[in-house]
Amino acid sequence: MRKITWLICVIVLLLTACSSQDSEPQTQEKEDQHFTDQQEDETEEKEEVKTDEATPAEDAKLPEANIVFSAFEEEPVPVETLDTQHMIKIEDKDITGTSIVYGDGEIVSFFLNHVYRYDVESKKEIWQTRFWDSPSQMFSLEKGILHYRGFKNIKGNVTTGEIVEEIEFDQDDGYEDDVAYRGVYRIGSTSQAVQVTNENTEKTVKLMENEEHDYIETALMDTIAATELDGLVSTYDNETGEQLAQKEFANDTRIFAKDGTDDLYIIDSPKENQYGHTFILVDGQTLEEKSKLFVNNASGGIYVANEQVFYHDPVEEMLVALDENLKEERYRIAVGGVSHQEVFDSDEQYIYLIDNDPEDPSLTNLLQFDAQTGEMKQYIQFPHMGITDFYRLDKKLYVKFDGTEADDLFYVIDEEDVHRSMDK
After folding, report:
1. 292, 283 in Cβ contact below 8 A?
2. What letter does residue 424 receive in the DSSP assignment?
3. In angstroms, rounded to a whole number, what is the distance separating the alpha carbons of residues 221 and 181?
4. At 68, phi and psi to the nearest 5?
5. What is the DSSP string of 259-302?
6. Are 111 and 149 in contact (CB under 8 A)?
7. Which residues contact 157 (CB under 8 A, 6 or more apart)?
8. Which of 174, 328, 405, 411 stands the most exposed, by the fewest C-beta atoms within 10 Å?
9. Could you tell me how many helices (H) and strands (E) the chain has, helices first?
């Protein structure tokens, strides 16, 4: 009996030992599998991190374009040295008003309640009228018809002093300010609202109310208009006034139309970066982003025209031209620092920049350059500071300063002939 009991115990011990040896490989296999899975997870995480790191940063700098002109290396032409065929200086308190139009030795001069036409040399009055208005914006001079805006939108005959066309605004809403044209459409801000008018049908639609009389930035595209107030950008149909899209930005925001399209540039200034700006090209219908570029140094001097986007780099002291899709720099112009009171303007071919001289702020420089190439057309210096107005009419440039003999000093400049008639 004892032998049988002992034999059973031995058998049990042997079976237990065999079972233990069989389970060890299974446990090891589980541990090995767990380790392998862990390694694969870590590998995937590393691959994901690597992919993120390989993605170009949103604020990656574009390759810098060539400097095509330097205001530090080139000498400006003093305006007083321009010959009499290309420049006339008019500073006479008896005949100069707040704005003028010049041609063939005569000026049309705007005073507070009257408009006169004078012979410059003799000061003889040719005609006067009380029915015109003091201009706030000059639009064009074509075949003797001056188009401008004051408290009314007027087209006047400079030869006779007669009003050819006049747009009077609603007395309750007040006159339109900050007027812009695009095709058949005109946009303007009254004391009550921002509105768009189809000048062919004379239909006006209100885009947004402005009972608080805030400054509302506007942009007019081919068939769409945009507004910006306190970072809120909205777009509207020009014909119906229907709101199409709306998007809010947390920071200081500016808007510009893209030439010949319904696209819009939104330029946002992050508060955490003193000079940084984000340039965003969006679809005006939806405000969906098409392209975006962050520029680390872009303080002031932002302008859009002629399929170019311009910004001033205060660190490099450069005016930088970007292509219309924000994909490359086109060229750079060394202009020095900007005063934040610089004047930008443009026509079909040229960009005009007027600002303080980079080395002597008591002087003012005019740069006229080709929008596509940056090639400098004119680089003129004025012996004054504090430009008070600049406008272009019939290819003549009118530059106004506070004068010494009169309140209003004008330089009229024309590359062809400054004395060309204003009547033709």
Report:
1. no
2. -
3. 9
4. -95, -15
5. TTSSEEEEEEE-TTSSS-EEEEEEETTT--EEEEEEES---S--
6. no
7. 144, 145, 146, 163, 164
8. 405
9. 1, 34
**The 137-142 sheet, strands edge to edge:** 137-142, 145-149, 153-157, 163-167
The better pLDDT of the pair 225, 51 is held by 225
Q: Residue 143: exposed, middle, or buried by beta-carbon count in 10 A (0-12, 13-18, 19+)?
A: exposed
Q: What backbone phi and psi angles, to 5 degrees, belong to 239?
A: -85, -40
Q: pTM (2 decimals)?
A: 0.83
Residue 276's pLDDT band (cuts 50, 70, 90): confident
Say which DSSP state 38 is in: H
Other beta carbons within 10 angstroms of residue 241's beta carbon come to: 18
- Distance between the two ends of the chain, CA-based, in angstroms? 140
* pLDDT tens-digit series, residues 161-175: 999 999 877 767 778
Total residue length of the chain: 424
The one-letter code for the residue type at 28 is: Q
Name the CA radius of gyration of the chain, rounded. Answer: 34
Of 342, 338, 339, 332, nearest to 369 (Cα)? 332
Give me the mean pLDDT over the 194-209 stretch: 95
Which string of b and e fits 145-165 if b means at least 16 CB within 10 Å?
Answer: ebbbbeebbbbbebbebeeee
What does DSSP say about strands 329-334 and 67-70: parallel, antiparallel, or unpaired? parallel
Question: How far apart are alpha carbons 2 and 278 in whole angstroms?
Answer: 95
CA 318/CA 333 separation, integer angstroms: 6
The encoded tokens of residue 424 equal 């033709």
Give the tens place of pLDDT for each residue, 103-121: 999 999 999 889 999 999 9
